[in-house]
Design a protein that fits this description.
By secondary structure, this protein is mostly helical. Helix content is 71%, strand content 0%. Helix 3 (45-74) runs parallel beside helix 9 (208-225) and helix 4 crosses helix 5 (87-120).
Length: 349
């Protein structure tokens, strides 16, 4: 049997590149596992959970957001030509400090709540185990998280617009720019940023590494959505274009992230325009049907014309004048006659 297998492998040799890649991948995985095991054994779960969350936020949101903002500030003409609305670039010198401060406060609030939950809850928020999660489990959690977070974000975002517009007004105070993704009201940040990101890993009790991947993906999506750049390729272009459409239409459409729920619920501009066109067509057809259905040969009803009331004309009432006013009027009339006579004599002479 061994002779047959050896002869078969000699005839059909395995590609050396496949073997080398597999070996390299195995070595990388082994190195990562040893590093993770050392980290878990040498640090507490609280420290690992909090600092890893902070590092992901700094690397996946703050670093690209600050790079894009710096590019907009240093090269405003070039950045403005790439934006949907160049006004977002011209406003940045005066609004960037406020956006930076609000985003930093909100992210600090998010990391603080994460640390408080890890410290106070009797069960681990996200398990920090020595074992690594399986790849199918990681992929399933990521896929499920994207679906659930998109649904939660859509319905909460739409509800906030219609029920608490004052709460969400701060988020629409500036054209889309990356820092605006987290520069919002703290309550709005908790509802629209933290809750959609955390809800699926919490319910699934996902591994801390799975949660970090989900958080990193969400941070990158936030930066791309609020970049404001036109001409981005693929899904990135759709994210940026939908966010720009949401702000351009004053929050009347594009409430979701990926646009699927907007299409299903009719809150995309194409659906809204089609609905308006259908409503107009129905109203026009209804008016036409009413016009065509009228019997124009039917005589008009004999409605008597109203007659005007004839009455005696009342004489004007005399004006009540006191004796003093009467004497003054008589004196003025006599003076007027004398003045007129004197003028005639002067003209005659």
């Amino acid at each position: 049997m061994s002779t047959i297998l050896s002869s078969l492998f000699s005839v059909l040799p395995l590609p050396t590149s496949l073997i080398s890649n597999y070996t390299l991948t195995s070595l990388n995985f082994l190195f990562f596992y040893l590093t993770w095991l050392t980290l878990v054994l040498s640090h507490s779960p609280l420290k690992i959970s909090v600092f890893s969350t902070l590092i992901i936020r700094l690397g996946c949101f703050w670093l690209p957001a600050l790079l894009v903002t710096s590019f907009d500030l240093l090269l405003p003409d070039l950045a403005g030509s790439c934006k949907f609305h160049p006004s977002s670039v011209s406003m940045l010198p005066s609004t960037a400090p406020g956006l930076l401060l609000r985003a930093a406060i909100n992210d600090a609030l998010g990391v603080g709540l994460h640390a408080l939950a890890v410290y106070a809850l009797p069960f681990p928020l996200f398990p920090v185990n020595k074992t690594l999660p399986l790849l199918p489990t990681v992929l399933y959690d990521i896929f499920l998280s994207q679906i659930v977070s998109a649904g939660v974000y859509y319905y909460l975002h739409r509800s906030v617009h219609y029920l608490w517009p004052a709460l969400h007004a701060q988020h629409h105070s500036h054209p889309p720019t990356p820092l605006l993704a987290h520069a919002q009201n703290p309550a709005d940040y908790l509802l629209l940023s933290l809750l959609p990101t955390y809800i699926t890993p919490l319910l699934r009790r996902s591994h801390i590494l799975t949660f970090l991947i989900i958080l990193a993906l969400q941070c990158v999506v936030d930066v791309v959505r609020f970049s404001g750049y036109q001409g981005l390729w693929g899904a990135a272009g759709g994210l940026s274009r939908r966010t720009e459409g949401h702000y351009y239409n004053r929050g009347t459409c594009y409430f979701g992230i990926w646009g699927i729920l907007d299409y299903m619920h009719g809150t995309s501009p194409a659906n809204l325009e089609a609905d308006a066109q259908r409503t107009f067509s129905r109203a026009k057809q209804r008016a036409k049907d009413e016009w065509d259905g009228m019997d124009w040969d039917k005589p008009l009803p004999n409605v008597p014309m109203p007659k005007a009331k004839r009455g005696k004309l009342s004489k004007p009432r005399p004006r009540a004048v006191s004796k003093k006013q009467h004497k003054e009027e008589e004196g003025e009339s006599v003076l007027g006659v004398m003045t007129r006579n004197m003028r005639r004599r002067a003209v005659g002479s």
